[in-house]
Amino acid sequence: MKTVCIIVGYILTLTTACAQSISLTDFLIFPRLDSTYWHHDQERINSNYDGAGACETCFTKTEDSVRDTHCIQTAFGHVRLDTLFNNASPERLQGKWTVVKAGAFVVSDSTSASMDRFLRNIRILDDQKAPVGFIEFTDKKVHVDLTTTHGRQRDRGRYMIRNKQFLLARKFIGRACSPTIVGITPNGFLVMDVHAYGMRIKMDKYFVFTSRITRLILQREGLQTVSSVP
Asked: What is the pLDDT of residue 55?
């Protein structure tokens, strides 16, 4: 049985009037671009894994004094869902949620030895507008049924919420793994993010930090959400 995090990687979006007002890159928190504060902010944003990185896998290579690191199945990223939305629980998730928007984007922050600020670039990789589907939660189990341009994705399994921000999906036998960062916004959207993270560093020359976020945004079935973004 696939984990929910893998399925989220294929999720696209249902085009609705409500969804049109939501940007794929809303609800994020970033480090300040002043290099004096960037590292402090980045550490604060990632200060509480609470065991959510148990299945993180990283690959590193060094060539011509340039070190590249790439991590998957990670809860880490130099940008992430705003910590104000660390409010998930099985009680709040219970019910059926319909897809309103999804896709993938990359955020890159870079600087060099001659700069005192980071440069930020946000690039949309995939902002789909056709498929439909839902995710339904009980207090212990999750049911996924989504139809996308990649085909129909169906799955059932157990899950747990850790530290009100990480959804850890698992098979019926086995440990929880593959963190999905989740949160419910004040206007009722459920945001689910899967992260990949990369660093490219040439010491004393330049630094590039990249977060790839595969995102799913849903609204509770039967609930009229506010279309404006807070």
From this structure: 82
Q: The tokens 């973004």 sit on which residue?
A: 229
Contact of 109 with 205, CB cutoff 8 Å: no
- In total, the chain counts a number of residues equal to 230
Q: What pTM was estimated for this model as a whole?
A: 0.84
Question: C-alpha angle 187/142/132, rounded to 5°?
Answer: 60
Candidates 5, 4, 6, 31; CA nearest to 211 is 31
User: H-helix or E-strand containing 45?
Assistant: helix 35-45
- pLDDT tens digit string along 95-113? 999 998 888 999 999 999 8
Place of tokens 């509770």: 220
Q: Are 221 and 96 in contact (CB under 8 A)?
A: yes
Q: Is the pLDDT of residue 149 over 70?
A: no
DSSP 8-state code for residue 37: H
H/E segment holding residue 195: strand 189-202
**Partner residues linked to 60 by β-bridges:** 69
**CA–CA gap between residue 15 and residue 186 (Å, rounded):** 21
> What is the distance between the alpha carbons of residues 207 and 84, in angstroms, rounded to a whole number?
28
| Angle made by CA atoms 67, 83, 88, in degrees to the nearest 5 | 115
